[in-house]
Amino acid sequence: MSSLSPQVVSISLPPLPTTAEEVAKRGWEAVDVVFVTGDAYVDHPSFAMALLGRLIQSEGYRVAILSQPDWRSCAPWRQFGRPRLCFAVSAGNMDSMINHYTAQRKVRNDDAYSPGGQIGRRPDRATLAYCQRAREAFCGVPVVAGGVEASLRRLAHYDYWSDKVRRSILLDSKADLLVFGMGERAIIEILRRLAEGRPLEELRDIRGVAYRLGASESPPVEDTIVLPSFEEVAGDKQKFAEMTRIAHLETNPFNARRLVQFHGREAVVVNPPAIPLEEPEMDRVYGLPYTRRPHPSYGNQRIPAYEVVKDSIQIMRGCFGGCTFCSITAHEGRVIQSRSPQSVIDEVRRMQEDPKFTGVISDIGGPTANMYRMNCSRPEVREKCRRLSCVHPTICKLLHTDHGPLIDLMRQTRQEQGVKRVFVASGVRMDIAQQSRPYLDELVRHHVGGHLKVAPEHSDPQVLHLMKKPSIDDFEQFAEKFSQASCRAGKKQYLVPYFIAGHPGSDLDAMIHVACYLKQTGHRPEQVQDFIPCPFDIATCMYYTGIDPMTGKKVYVARGAHERRLQRALLQFFLPENYYLVREALEKARRTDLIGSEPDCLIPAEPPKGAGKKAGSGRDSAKVATPAAGYRPHRKTARRRAR
After folding, report:
1. Which of 60, 206, 258, 449 has the lowest CB atom count within 10 Å?
2. What is the spatial distance between Cα 568 and Cα 511, in angstroms, rounded to a whole number?
3. Using 50, 70 and 90 to split pLDDT, how confident is the model at 612?
């Protein structure tokens, strides 16, 4: 296991070079690594290119950032000259297809990771285009793919946007190596070996790395599981479900085995995941000399994603929730990796050196708000465990759920001189939060700005079970305790619950169940989520196959765009523009008892003022074009030409 030795850096350094001119100003004749990214370059630890770029720099390598290059030619890849070690390629902080398209497969109006929110600054399936241009630019330079897009597509996967099973991204991109998960250990070990002059074949044993084998090569045999082949999973949904089940059971870094999947005569080999970072290593990574700002070349152009996180502090990574529709556990891992309190306080003090810092920390958290320093209390059991969630169907008795360290950290942070407020904007895991009255009191009294985000996601028991989420009773219990804590604090504060429409297992009856629950409890969600099948997720397997891969049982799936609109409308049944969609849903489900003037009715018998158009006319019935030809970001508008 490669180690990231602790290193203290107290001053900020200039941002990493992004042009040949900036490289020349540093007196470099060449760079060691060109980091290619589909995002704007923001030198903040919430952005992968900054975190990994600074880490590479701290190891003594010369790194340049190639941000959002024009992929229509390989000229941008040549601007720094031939990299001495490799190209490191990432589509960005998001899968490029999710970045481009909504759940209805419509082109998004903006890109949160681009200056000015401008669309069109990266291609569809950006990893493929970037890797191909890197190979064109300099023959023989190793190409290493990474990031969320590559990580979740490392095996054969269902692609929602083309509605088919696609090959491993390794084969289509022709990358030499693929780093999956959080990449610090793997990228440093790769660079060390390349710097020693070792061939790519001698890098294939690195944890957290996947690679492809040619037709004449044989995969390793020891401690290896052979998955159903690409041809099998593309032609047989049972085989796809089997592949998904096996792959997810091999995600614990302490007991995972190597996976091999054949694609014709070639094969993809996926090594066990990287070992999670220890606390001193986390401190080092987040203590690197970030400017915490976008690159100066963007001027006054606003980068929306940066605005959200610029004054936030990430205190941990990973999630043991294991929600089937969420990629966090699949990418960051189930083991919680936390920073020390001193590391967090040091970051607060660095933030105060910025004259633009207002004294308000917008978030102190991570993938979730309240898993700081929570882990299995029996490491010897953790190393054998293959459970996909530590909290579902019940909280594991071995899970350490003490909120004490988090409470202490929250107090230390807000007591720092110059800090006015410290908010918690990350989602709170309700089932473990309500076990600690001191945490709820601390949270409500000092860290909630009137509203707190929580994610019950649904109310139907069967759907919640498929999601690996606790029952709606858990949300109600938390809501009661939150209200009591608010009263003790002398405050009037509210929960903002999030719900998902169109999740596998959810039919119209299940969504009507949610709508009735919202009606009874008085919740009126301002924002709702449409389920998007993300590669590798268990829920995506359910969507594609109609099978729960963990049990083999059949699952209902709402596939048509119109039914998905009906489900979404039910979550906001109270909006006049949704009237006809909600009415159609109720009539289809034979629940006309919910139409009328009775207290429990969802909608009135007569359409209200501002009611949307009837189904079968106007926008509600328009078919959404599938972007089979790919994203065309060079067009002047976001409209897609009719095909």
Report:
1. 60
2. 8
3. confident
- Which residue spans within 138-265 are E strands per DSSP? 143-146, 157-159, 164-166, 177-179, 209-213, 224-226, 258-263
12 pLDDT band, cuts 50/70/90, is low
- Residue 11, pLDDT > 90, answer no
Torsion sign over Cα 236, 242, 246, 248: positive
The pLDDT assigned to 634 comes to 45
What are the residues whose beta carbons fall under 8 Å from the beta carbon of 408, sequence distance 6 or more? Answer: 341
End-to-end CA distance of the chain: 52
**322-335 pLDDT, tens per residue?**
999 999 998 999 99
**Which 3 state secondary structure label does DSSP give 603?**
strand
Q: Which residue has the higher pLDDT, 15 or 627?
A: 15
Residue type, 124: D
Closest to 293 (Cα-Cα) out of 63, 44, 580, 76: 44
Q: Is 618 exposed, middle or buried (0-12, 13-18, 19+ CB in 10 A)?
A: exposed
In angstroms, the Cα distances linking 94 to 30, 202, 388, 589, 640 are 30, 30, 23, 37, 22
What does the pLDDT read at residue 226? 98
Portions of the chain given CATH number 3.30.750.200: 454-628
pLDDT tens digits for 149-165?
999 999 999 999 999 99
Rounded Cα distance between 313 and 294, Å, is 17
CA 211 to chain centre: 23
- Single pTM value for the model: 0.92
The whole-chain average pLDDT of the chain stands at: 93
Average pLDDT on 591-610 reads 95
Kindly report, as residue ranges, where domains of CATH 3.40.50.280 are found in the chain.
Answer: 20-209
What CATH fold (topology level) applies to the domain 311-449?
Transcription Regulator spoIIAA (3.30.750)
What is the pLDDT averaged over residues 368-397?
Answer: 95
DSSP class per residue in 448-505: -SSEEEEEEE---HHHHHHHT---HHHHHHHHHHHHHHHHHTT---EEEEEEEES-TT
- 494: confidence class by pLDDT, cuts 50, 70, 90: very high
State the Cα–Cα distance between residues 311 and 298, nearest whole angstrom.
19
Phi, psi of 338 (to 5 degrees): -115, 155
The pLDDT confidence band at residue 615, using thresholds 50, 70 and 90, is: low
Question: Cα angle at 459 between 455 and 460, to 5 degrees?
Answer: 135
Determine the length of the chain: 643
What are the start and end residues of each CATH 3.30.750.210 domain in the chain?
311-449
| Other CB atoms within 10 A of residue 418 CB | 12
Distance of CA 332 to the CA centre of its chain: 9
Query: Phi and psi of 377, rounded to 5°?
Result: -80, -10
**Gap between the Cα atoms of 643 and 627, Å rounded:** 10
The reply to whether CATH 3.30.750.200 applies to domain 454-628 is yes
What SS3 state is found at 572? coil
Is residue 100 classed exposed, middle or buried when 0-12, 13-18 and 19+ CB atoms within 10 A define those classes?
Answer: buried
Give the largest Cα separation in the chain, rounded.
Answer: 77
> How much of the chain is in helix, strand and coil states, percent to nearest 5?
35, 15, 50
Are the beta carbons of 295 and 53 closer than 8 angstroms? no
SS (H, E, C) 314-358: ECEECCCCCCCCCCHHHHHCCCCEECCHHHHHHHHHHHHCCCCCC
Q: Residues 78-89: what's their mean pLDDT?
A: 98
Amino acid 277: pLDDT: 97
pLDDT at site 621: 38
